[in-house]
Design a protein that fits this description.
It is a single chain. By secondary structure, the chain is mainly α. The protein has helices spanning 7-21, 30-33, 35-48, 54-68, 76-79, 85-99, 104-110, 115-132, 136-147. It is built from 9 helices and no strands. Helix 3 (35-48) packs across helix 6 (85-99). The radius of gyration is 16 Å and the shape is globular.
């Protein structure tokens, strides 16, 4: 079973086993601490997934570029971990867009993190989307459709 896992997934399993072996302050927080890395891993996996349509891959690529870019709305260099909030938000919005166009199993098989956390993120995005009247990515769909039919 470990043959199917990549380096990040194996590293995550190792961290979880160490966390269980030596319980402490990080025990209940480990999944949240690993969330930015889990989302980055998911973005890269979806970008390489052959079942994801080209138009959706463009969104994933834009999210990846934003994620690794030093120019953010909330600068990572100045604010440390707080600066990851906007990166996480962009990744979650792309994830929401993907879940509306690809099979949920496509996202779930690429997700290395806690399954319950993924479900919670999906519900959170749905609630925020409803309050905002639809995300920016959904409004960009007609433009991307013309560029990548």
């Amino acid at each position: 079973m470990n043959e199917d896992r990549d380096f990040y997934q194996l590293l995550r399993l190792y961290l979880q086993s160490q966390n269980q072996q030596y319980p402490g302050v990080l025990n209940p927080l480990l999944d949240y601490i690993l969330l930015p890395s889990d989302l980055l891993h998911l973005i890269v996996k979806l970008l390489l997934d052959e079942t994801v349509p080209l138009r959706e891959k463009v969104k994933v690529l834009l999210a990846l570029l934003y994620y690794v870019s030093p120019l953010d709305l909330i600068p990572d260099m100045l604010l440390g971990p707080v600066g990851l909030v906007d990166d996480i938000a962009v990744a979650i919005y792309v994830l929401d867009s993907l879940l509306n166009t690809v099979q949920p199993e496509t996202v779930e098989r690429s997700w290395a993190g806690d399954r319950q956390l993924l479900f919670t993120l999906q519900r959170l995005v749905g609630a925020v989307d409803g309050m905002m009247g639809g995300s920016l990515l959904h409004k960009l769909d007609p433009v991307l459709y013309r560029l990548f039919p």
